[in-house]
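Supplementary Methods, section 5.1.

A reviewer requested that the exact input to the structure prediction be made available. We therefore reproduce it here, unchanged from the version used in the analyses.
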Amino acid sequence: MGIEIKNRKAAFSYFLTDRYTAGIQLQGTEIKSIRAGKASIMEAYCKFQGDELFVFNMYIEVYGNAGYVTHEPRRIRKLLMKRTELSKLQRKLRDVGVTVVPTRLFISESGFAKLDIAVAKGKKLVDKRNTIKDRDQARDLDRRG
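The structure derived from this sequence is encoded token-by-token as follows.
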């Protein structure tokens, strides 16, 4: 399959700790748009409603050959996870400044759309500068060696 859509902004803006993989509840032609690479998770975030986890603001482009039955590009989509994982996530989200951020959207070997999510805590400006500095130093070392 080879489809992998990443959220590169997440690693720069947040400290990512615990990672999980969740299935996504999709409608109709959304999977065809994802397989065509027409999706984005850059502005997406996850939030609990009751005991269920949903992803908000994830963009999946309307499939071109869909006909008259289409989907809303930025609709709320339910994430499919085990109850034990959901309860762990809810406990971790009780802390102040902690959120759940999608990091990668991909097609699994069995053909299903999956979303990697991570528990994230926001970085301060100093931390972001350190990330840039470390990245530049690593790039310089690669050039020399």
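The chain has a mean pLDDT of 91. These observations are discussed further in the main text.
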